[in-house]
Amino acid sequence: MKNQGSSVTAIKHGSTLFRDEPYKGASPEVIESQVTKPLENQLAGIEGVDVMTSRSRSERSLINIKFNLSRSPDAAAAEVRDKVSRARRFLPDEIDEPIIGKVEADSQPIIYIAVESGHYSAIQTSDYINRYIKTRLSVLPGAAEVRVFGERLPSMRIYVDRDKLAGYNLTVLDVEAALRSQNVEIPAGRIESRAREFSVVSSTDLQTIPQFENIIIANVKGYPVRLRDVARVQIDAANDRVLSRFNGKSALNIGITRQSTANPLELSAAARQEVERLNESLPAGMKLNISYDTSVFIERSIDSVYHTIVEAIVLVVLVIFFFLRNLRASLVPIVTIPVSLIGACAIMYMFGFSINTLTLLAMVLAIGLVVDDAIVVLENIFRHIENGVPRRQAAIQGSREIGFAVVAMTMTLVTVYAPLAFATGRTGRLFIEFALTLAATVLVSGVVALTLTPMMCSLLLRHQTRHNRAYNLIEGWLEALSRGYRRSLGWSLAHRGVVIVVGLAVAAASGVLFKVVKSELTPIEDRGVIFGIVSSPEGATLGYTLENMLAIEKFYESIPETSVSQTTVGFPTVTDGTAILRLKPWEDRARRQQEITRELQPKFSALPGVRAFPTNPPSLGQSSRSKPVEFIIMSQAPYPELAKLVGVFLNALRDYPGLQNLDTDLRLNTPELRVHVDRDKMSDVGASVDVVGRTLESMLGGRQVTRYKDEGEQYDVIVQVTPRDRATPTDISGIYVRARDGSMVQLDNLLAVREGVSPQSLNHFNRLRAVKVDASVAPGYALG
């Protein structure tokens, strides 16, 4: 068993490929029509596609292709790349180069590490993590990816002052051109003489704030205009739209995702050891803490099943000894248990199965089955020995008499369990290891019963003519039981009609109860963790979402069973937040995780202005934000008509008490500012749409222009207007562009700004316009 991997379940999905197409400045409607649809048309003919979904967001198209299990991931990736290269000519020229990658079925981090920064800033802590900690964690055996949530990597921020730029008759594009031309690192070659050689290194790149401030952008009236004259230069965060917290304080959270073939227990143990080593060398005040580790539940689950196996073996041994009342005879079926389990583990190792709760559960069930064959063979051989037949001859004769029956019984059980491995869909993938492990164990037990059992009987069993008092006492009980069974059998044969009616009634009741009893794929388990999910209204800021996350942190503090809490705000978007509550160990609390979740539900629902709910972690490795109930509504109708249909559907679902936390991914109310250009005026002054668009992108969105180096690491140089000049819609009109005659023209004269709404994203399912409606199951209800 030590050579086999460990996990909770052994569900294996088909490979999934994603394509990310960045297109700066494009709205979801433009992305859908000019990027998503042309790509979907090209990708539609790929072999082995199970499901293809897409999401068209502002400036981005994300296409996910899920293949069936028979499709090779590498071959699928190669075909996708080929199709994308063919579709490139149908895409806009301005689109960035697409990103194509493979996603593992279980791509969620298995362990989170919180970094308390002490007196260091978030930028300093992020830089330290990126330089030293992230590298050491990423090389751990089995680690696929190391993510840092709330990361604040340093960047050289150029905050330009639009009024000062206009005063010098300059634009932000002039600043970008100066940065690109003066921040370069070009190898200069070498100097060679007869005996010596020198490499010539030209120090032409910029690395410090004073160096950037002294860049000459232009000469105005004979005087140089430097960057410091029109902008503020400082080291600031490259991305400040994601926050993370730990136990109510600002922190950074590191998540480690495992490779598909990696053992989560081994990866977690390696990560914990590495955290201990890192804590010894961290700067004073900085500390790493394990905030959430999924392997704790995995290890507890496996240990629990191990204990169940031991208990099952002990109970089987006691029952066997009770009925056989002979220590030598009891040793024969007892030995078959470990031998059969060892054989089953060998077969599991050959098939590459892991030690998980389902394979161990198969062994628990098999313990009662593996001794059946051995007991039948033993009893028949023992009968011959009691009749005076020599032990060797009794073993041969007894096993020969019932050999066919043992084979038939073994193959019957195998044919019952093995077909579970060929079930399709998620159920088949879930039970394949369970079914084959159970079938293999029973098959090995049949072989052992016909080989090892007769051999042991010929060596251990003896003919006894005298028995002790315990034997005679139990023999009296068994005789009484036999007489009672004989009488009940006689009565049943005499009243066949009654027996048939009772049997039919039981069968009918079973069918009725089968429909009445609740059913679901997997039950909710007490994993010792609760996820809090928050979605703010469209257009809400990061600060708005953070306020509600702070309220959830207070809810967590009021729970006596709280151990630690971890919060992430702004991921995957600024309107989203996730709060993880890790509970105390199982033995240190009286309430189960599900009870605490029910207590938190009304508190979350009472939060004003957001959709918030607590949820138990899914059992099969899905995302914490996924819900057990999902509906996909597909249509070729426009999205406004689809939204009306979804509204009717949601109203119908709200009338059903078994569903809660209803939500949809179609949101057509994202606030936006629509900039309408006056092309006639732009033509009159000689300004182009391209210049206006790039100016707005740099001033408002921030453009990564070049990079700078600091102690061997490369960081972004970002140009953007100062925060106070991009706080209101009217700030757009105050930006200047250069006219044909060299004068500065305010955008207020060339464009109009109007408020409006737009969709957050436009989704497709198998190339059709689609809307997903999801929900959680209310307490007291089940999926089935």
Automatic annotation (TrEMBL):
Which subcellular locations apply to this protein?
Cell inner membrane
Major location category of this protein: membrane
Note the topology in the membrane: Multi-pass membrane protein
Listed GO cellular component terms?
plasma membrane
Q: Which domain of life is it from?
A: Bacteria
Instruction: Give me the segments passing through the membrane.
Output: 305-324, 331-352, 358-382, 402-422, 434-461, 493-514
Q: Which Pfam families match?
A: ACR_tran (PF00873)
GO MF entries: xenobiotic transmembrane transporter activity
Mind telling me which PANTHER family this protein's record contains?
BLL4319 PROTEIN, PTHR32063
Q: Can you say what this protein is called?
A: RND transporter, HAE1 family
Which species is this UniProt entry from? Bordetella holmesii CDC-H585-BH
